[in-house]
Design brief:
Layout: H1 5-13, E1 14-17, E2 24-27, E3 31-35, H2 36-49, E4 58-62, H3 73-88, E5 91-93, H4 100-108, E6 114-117, E7 131-134, H5 137-144, E8 149-152, E9 155-162, H6 172-183, E10 191-196, H7 198-201, H8 205-213, E11 222-224, H9 229-237, E12 257-262, E13 269-271, E14 279-281, H10 282-285, E15 292-295, H11 303-315, E16 326-329, H12 334-343, H13 345-352, E17 355-356, E18 376-379, E19 395-398, H14 401-410, E20 440-441, H15 446-449, E21 473-480, H16 487-490, H17 495-498, H18 504-507, H19 519-526, E22 529-533, H20 545-553, E23 555-560, H21 565-573, E24 577-581, E25 595-598, H22 601-606, E26 611-616, E27 622-626, H23 631-639, H24 642-649, H25 660-663
Parallel strand pairs: 3-4, 3-6, 4-5, 6-7, 9-10, 9-12, 10-11, 15-16, 15-18, 16-17, 18-19, 21-22, 22-23, 23-24
Antiparallel strand pairs: 1-2, 2-8, 5-20, 13-14, 21-25, 24-27, 25-26, 26-27
Helix pairs in contact: 2-3, 2-5, 6-8, 11-13, 11-14, 23-24
The chain binds alpha-methylisocitric acid.
Residues 37-38, 65, 119-121, 134, 365, 383, 540-543 line the site of alpha-methylisocitric acid (MIC).
Length: 703
C-alpha cells in the first residue's frame, strides 16, 4: 500500500503495536538528544536503569541552556555530564559549541532515522527527513538504555505548500506562524506534519528547521520534510553525504488530513503576547513601541537570519539600532558564528549597535537579557509565554528576522515591506575550515569507561523516589488553573530557577510561583494534594521538572480538561495520575481546599476501566473522570512510575527491545559502537532493581 514518508519511517522502526492513529506503538530509536537543563535528571535516571553503556547509535549531550554560571551549580552540572558521557557512551558537545537543534542539523540528523530528545524543539531535525520527537528526560533515558519509545500512533497531516515566499520580507517563520494562526497551540496534538508540494523545494534546510522546530508550538509530535536535492546539498556541505537516504512519500499515498498554504499569498505575521498562536498580520501591530529586539535562538539564528539584519544596519550611512531599544543577536552554532565572523556580518551587526551573544539558548529561556518592566520585546524566538523572558509583566512579540530587522531601526514594530529596496546580504564563506567535530567529545572506550568516577557537586541530588499506587487516592485540591498553563508556570524559566534542574527539592519551591504563589505553602501543609487544570494543561517545553516538582510536593493526580502530549506523558512516567473530566462542566465544581477521593482507582486501572470514579467530600453526586492511558501506562501508574514499571516488567509487553544492534550502521564512530553485542542478548543483571532487557528489532533500514 502506498504510504506517506512518516508512516514509512514509523513502520520501519515499529517494534510493537499497530500503525493506527491513537493506538499505542513502540519504536526503535536511532538517536537521542539531551541538553544540560534536562540532561542531568535524564542521565541520573539512566543510571537507575543499570545499563553500563548507552544503546543507541548516536546519543549526544549538548550544553546550551544553563550556561550563565552565576555560581558552582551550572559548571558542576557540566562537569558531571561530561564524565557521564565519557563513561556511559554518549557524545558531549561542549558549552559554546552551539544550540542542540542547530548542531543536530549540522552534524547528526539523518534522513529516515528516529530520534527522541529531551527538549520539545527536537523536531527541528525533521528538516532533514527524519522523525524527531520531543520527550521527557526519563523517556529519553529509557531509549538510551535500549528500550523502544512508546507513544500513541500519530496521524499524519499533509502540509501542501504551493508558490514561493515574497522574500526577503516574507520568510519561513511566517509559514509556521500561519499554521499556528490556523490551528492553535493544541491543533497539532498527536500529529506529524509532513511538508509536500512545490513550495517545499524552495525552502533551505535552516528554513525547514525553523518550521520543524516550532511544530512544537502546535503541540505536535513532529514535522518531516522529505529529503530532496537541498537535503543532499546540505549534507554534502557538511561533508556527510553518506548520511543521505533517498526517501520520499509513495506516489498516490494518503494522509489523515491536509492543510494547503499558498506561500505567495503570505505576508509577514507576528504572534502577540502571550501565546505563540496569538498571530496577526504585521499591519495590525505595526507602530507598537518596543524596548528590545532579540535575534536568534533555536530558530532564526542561521547565517541568513543574521545576514539580513546585518545588511539592513549597514545599508545606509548612520543607520543604527534605535536609541530607545536594546538589541541582541545569537548565532545558532560555532559554525554559524565562524561564518558570520568571516563574511563580515558580525561586524555589520556590532557596528550597527547589536549586542552579540554566544551560541546558546540565552534570552529565549530567560537566561539574561530580560526586557524592562511593562515594555514590549520583539523576538525572532519560538515562545512568548508570560514571564518566560525573566520580566514578570513582559509583553513578548514573536516575528521573523525581516520584521525584527526593520523594527531595529525605529523602535517600533514595522512592516518590512515598507522598507523599500532590500539590501544585498553578504555571502557566506566556504564552511570548510569550521567543519569539524573537535569540540564534540567522543566517549571513552569500554575498558577505560569503567574507571571513570562521576563528580557530583553539592547541588546535585538524586531523582525523587516513587511509591506504587494505593488502592484509593485522596487529596485536597491545591490549585485550580485555567487553560493553556505552560510547563514554565510549573517549573519556571530563567537562570535562577533553572540552576536547580539537578535538585528537585529545591526547584519544587518555585512551582506556580507566578500563577499561585501560595500553592507551595498550601500543599506542603496538607502533605500533598491534587491539581485541577483547564485545556491544554502543560503546554510548551518537555521539562519533566514540571512533573518531578509536583511529585516532590506530593501531587497525586492532575485533573484537567485536556493535556499537552509531552507533559501528560511526563506525569504518567513519574507516577502521577493525569486524568480528564468526563464532563468538562465538572471543572467548575473544583475549589481549592475541597477533598477529592478516587476510591477504586487502582482496581479500575488494573481492570482496564475507561472511567475513574471520583467523589467530592461532602457532596452526594459522584463524578466521572476519564483518561487515555495505553495498557502499559496503566501498569506504569500502578507501579508508581516508569522506573518501577521497568523493574517489574522490562520494556513493552512482548519484551521487544530497541533493535539497536540489528539496526546499527557500519559507518559509526568509535565508542558508541564498541558495545559488546552479548549485552544485547538480554541477561538479567545480578544487581537488584537493575534491568537488562534484550535488544531486538526489525533490522536496519539504511543499509
Ligand atoms: C524551552 O524552549 O522551553 C526549553 C527550555 O528548551 C525546554 C527544555 C527545558 O525546559 O529544559 C523545551 O523546549 O523542552
Amino acid at each position: 500500500m502506498a504510504e506517506n514518508l512518516s508512516r514509512q519511517i514509523l513502520r520501519d522502526h515499529l517494534t510493537d503495536g499497530e500503525l493506527k492513529p491513537g493506538s499505542p506503538i513502540a519504536l526503535r530509536v536511532d538517536q537521542t538528544l539531551l541538553q544540560d537543563a534536562t540532561g542531568t535528571m535524564a542521565f541520573m535516571q539512566f543510571e537507575q536503569l543499570g545499563e553500563p553503556r548507552v544503546k543507541v547509535d548516536r546519543a549526544v549531550q549538548y550544553i546550551d541552556h544553563n550556561v550563565i554560571q552565576l555560581d558552582n551549580k551550572n559548571p558542576d552540572d557540566h562537569r558531571m555530564l561530561q564524565a557521564m558521557c565519557r563513561k556511559y557512551g554518549a557524545y558531549y558537545s561542549r558549552p559554546g559549541n552551539g544550540i542542540s537543534h542547530y548542531i543536530s542539523l549540522e552534524r547528526f540528523a539523518r534522513p529516515g532515522d528516529v530520534m527522541v530528545g529531551a527538549d520539545s524543539h527536537t523536531p527541528t531535525s525533521g528538516a532533514l527527513g527524519m522523525i524527531a520527537i520531543g520527550a521527557g528526560g526519563l523517556d529519553v533515558a529509557v531509549a538510551m538504555a535500549g528500550h523502544p519509545y512508546e507513544i500513541a500512533c500519530p496521524e499524519v497531516v499533509d502540509v501542501h505548500l504551493e508558490g514561493t515566499l515574497q522574500r526577503p520580507w516574507v520568510q519561513a517563520k511566517d509559514i509556521i506562524l500561519e499554521l499556528l494562526r490556523r490551528l492553535s497551540v493544541s491543533g497539532g496534538k498527536n500529529k506529524i506534519f509532513e511538508f509536500t508540494g512545490p513550495g517545499t523545494a524552495d525552502l533551505s534546510i535552516p528554513e525547514r528547521g525553523t518550521i520543524a522546530n516550532m511544530i512544537a508550538e502546535l503541540g505536535a509530535t513532529s514535522a518531516v520534510f522529505p529529503p530532496d536535492d537541498k537535503t543532499r546539498d546540505w549534507l554534502r556541505i557538511q561533508q556527510r553525504e553518506d548520511d543521505f537516504a533517498d526517501l520520499r512519500p509513495d506516489d498516490g499515498c494518503s494522509y489523515d488530513d491536509r492543510v494547503d498554504i499558498d506561500l505567495g499569498e503570505l505576508g509577514p505575521l507576528v504572534a502577540k503576547p502571550h501565546n505563540p498562536d496569538n498571530v496577526v498580520p504585521v499591519e495590525e501591530v505595526a507602530g507598537t513601541e518596543i524596548a528590545q529586539v532579540c535575534l536568534g535562538s533555536s530558530v532564526n539564528s542561521g547565517y541568513f537570519d543574521l545576514a539580513l539584519p546585518g545588511a539592513i544596519l549597514a545599508d545606509k550611512e548612520g543607520q543604527i539600532v534605535h536609541e530607545s531599544i536594546a538589541a541582541t543577536a545569537t548565532p545558532g552554532s560555532r559554525q554559524i558564528l565562524a561564518a558570520i565572523a568571516e563574511s563580515g556580518v558580525y561586524r555589520q551587526l556590532i557596528e550597527g549597535g547589536v549586542r552579540m551573544l554566544e551560541p546558546v539558548c540565552g534570552p529565549c529561556v530567560g537566561m539574561g537579557q530580560a526586557p524592562p518592566s511593562g515594555a514590549a520585546s520583539l523576538r525572532t524566538f519560538n515562545r512568548n509565554f508570560p514571564g518566560r523572558s525573566g520580566t514578570a509583566d513582559d509583553a513578548v512579540y514573536l516575528c521573523s528576522p525581516a520584521v525584527a530587522a526593520v523594527s531595529l531601526l525605529t523602535g517600533r514594530i514595522e512592516d518590512p515591506r515598507e522598507y523599500g529596496e532590500p539590501p544585498e546580504t553578504l555571502d557566506p564563506p566556504e564552511l570548510k575550515p569550521y567543519l569539524d567535530d573537535i569540540h564534540i567529545f567522543a566517549p571513552a572506550g569500554e575498558a577505560d569507561a569503567e574507571q571513570i568516577e562521576i563528580p557530583r557537586g553539592p547541588n546535585i541530588k538524586p531523582p525523587p523516589e516513587h511509591q506504587p499506587l494505593g488502592e484509593s487516592v485522596e487529596g485536597k485540591i491545591a490549585t485550580v488553573q485555567p487553560d493553556d498553563i505552560s510547563t514554565g508556570d510549573l517549573a519556571p524559566d530563567g537562570a535562577e530557577v533553572m540552576a536547580y534542574r539537578s535538585n528537585i527539592p529545591a526547584i519544587a519551591e518555585f512551582t506556580f510561583r507566578h500563577r499561585d504563589p501560595e500553592f507551595r505553602k498550601r500543599i506542603q501543609e496538607w502533605g500533598g494534594g491534587f491539581i485541577v487544570g483547564g485545556e491544554n494543561y502543560g503546554q510548551g517545553s518537555s521539562r519533566e521538572h514540571a512533573a518531578l516538582a509536583p511529585l516532590q510536593l506530593g501531587v497525586k493526580a492532575v485533573i484537567a480538561k485536556s493535556f499537552a502530549r509531552i507533559h501528560r506523558r511526563n506525569l504518567v512516567a513519574q507516577g502521577i495520575l493525569a486524568l480528564t473530566f468526563a464532563d468538562d462542566a465538572d471543572y467548575e465544581r473544583a475549589e481549592v481546599g475541597q477533598t477529592w477521593v478516587l476510591p477504586n482507582v487502582r482496581q479500575e486501572l488494573e481492570a482496564g476501566a475507561d472511567e475513574i470514579t471520583a467523589r467530592i467530600e461532602g457532596e452526594d453526586r459522584e463524578l466521572k473522570l476519564t483518561h487515555d492511558f495505553a495498557p502499559s501506562e496503566r501498569k506504569i501508574l500502578v507501579a508508581g512510575g516508569l522506573l518501577g514499571y521497568l523493574r517489574e516488567h522490562g520494556s513493552s509487553e512482548d519484551g521487544a527491545g530497541n533493535g539497536r544492534a540489528a539496526g546499527r550502521r557500519e559507518d559509526e564512530a568509535e565508542g558508541i559502537t564498541s558495545q559488546d553485542e552479548s549485552e544485547a542478548e538480554g541477561e538479567e543483571s545480578a544487581e537488584p532493581g537493575v534491568i537488562r532487557k534484550p535488544a531486538q528489532g526489525p533490522g536496519g533500514h539504511h543499509e
